[in-house]
Amino acid sequence: MIRVLIGFFIASVFVGCTTTNKNNVIYEEYKPEKSVKQVPNKQRTIKKVATIEKEVPTNGSIKGNVTKLTFSDGIWNYEVKSRDTSNQKLSIAKFTHRKKVAKKGDFVYVIIENGKLKESYLIKKANYKSKRVKKTHKKKKQYKPKTFKRTKKYQVIGVPTVESISLD
User: Fold this and answer.
1) How far apart are CA 152 and CA 132, in angstroms?
2) For residues 129 and 141, is the Cβ–Cβ distance under 8 A?
3) pLDDT for 92-127, tens place per residue?
4) Backbone angles phi, psi at 89, to 5 degrees
5) What is the rounded distance in angstroms from the CA atom of residue 50 to the CA atom of residue 45?
6) pTM above 0.85, yes or no
7) Are 107 and 65 in contact (CB under 8 A)?
């Protein structure tokens, strides 16, 4: 009897916990700070800074893909965008060289001094042209019936043609 009463008491506590009002949240209205000045769009002025693009000779190393390759006045102009900028490598580099060392799209590691190529290492060639793969037709195998050799394991016995019975 006591077990039943304890069971009802525990059940009423759980039911009472689930039916309590959970809407005790108090909402406050958001008020922006008064110290912030709001200026109408007409009074705002946008200052544009003129940028002068002057190529500064670059020094350092870069590991990336050749994005631009042009030839003018007997000099090859390269532009390389980096994949790896760790260890103070450059993110983008423009340099010149008198010979063509890499093609557009090649993955290279380059060391540059005063805007000129000092050393270049080709890591991976770009996929210039895909070669066609010639398809060869396989010959169908001709069916050859198996011929068994007479051995002790396998003996070929022919069908009897004549049968005779003798009574003595």
Assistant:
1) 55
2) no
3) 989 999 999 998 899 999 999 988 889 999 998 887
4) -80, 155
5) 16
6) no
7) yes
Task: Tokens 């009802």: give the residue.
Answer: 8
Count CB-CB contacts under 10 A for residue 11: 10
Distance CA 112, CA 146 (A): 73
Residue for token digits 């394991």? 153
**What confidence score (pLDDT) does residue 6 get?**
84
Written as six digits, the tokens of 75 are 């000099």
Q: Taking Cα atoms as reference points, which of 111, 75, 107, 73 lies closest to residue 93?
A: 111
Phi/psi class of residue 91: alpha, beta or left (left: φ > 0; alpha: ψ in -120 to 50)? alpha
Amino acid at 31: K
Write out the two tokens for 121: 């290492």
For 15, phi and psi rounded to 5 degrees? -65, -40
Please determine, for residue 71, whether its predicted confidence score (pLDDT) is greater than 90: yes
Say how many residues make up the chain.
Answer: 168
DSSP 8-state symbol, 123: E
CB contact at 8 A, 137 and 113: no
* Of 113, 55, 60, 58, nearest in space to 84 by CA: 60
pLDDT digits (tens, 9 = 90+) for 12-45: 776 665 555 555 656 666 666 655 555 555 555 5
DSSP 8-state assignment for residue 104: T
In the chain, where are the structural domains located? 60-124
